[in-house]
């Protein structure tokens, strides 16, 4: 179950890659993967399906804040596994990547050669985005540098708008860490339109390592998260819980990898 509108779900590479990983694992065991949305237009029907016994287990993806259906499911006996750390107050087993460590590694790379490093952050109600913000703040605090943050929404348009705002606020900035590759791609467009050279004037790093990251101009340095593996792991842990009827396995966090290209 994806807690996003279908338009977002099919336009963001993360969801397609995660679903592919989960589906591939389950297909090898003869289990189909129905795709449900918990967005507002279909919320009631999805809730009725799940609470009425329509599924043996649920993978929860992209839970923003204390999502009402996530809260409801957490209080049932239905096996569930969240992709991404749940918000505080929502207790359920999860798999995730090291968002905080990945963000910190990105900023530490920028700190080697840059002075004023900005962040284009993700949605504040999404734990992954908050963890990436924390990693950015950790690295800057240790280096004694002040933060410079603009809000984004994990979309290219959001990244472009945030980059324009940052350039207005701090024309002398010389580096940007965007908390997703789509936002980094939008930020690169805004930088080019403002006459800034990448990386000569402004270095930029994204987060995800989507396919397009290797084909931007210049190719984008980014934090790679193993999304297909994350999907497969989430499906595996949920499947094993459903089959065994036992307690869920422990939470698991996968490492990220800094992929250095020509934007830094």
Automatic annotation (TrEMBL):
Keywords: DNA-binding, Transcription, Transcription regulation. One of its GO terms (molecular function) is DNA-binding transcription factor activity. InterPro entries: LacI/GalR-like_sensor, Peripla_BP_I. The keyword Transcription regulation applies. Residues 115-264 form the Transcriptional regulator LacI/GalR-like sensor domain. It comes from the Bacteria. PANTHER family: HTH-TYPE TRANSCRIPTIONAL REGULATOR GALS, LACI-RELATED TRANSCRIPTIONAL REPRESSOR. This is Substrate-binding domain-containing protein.
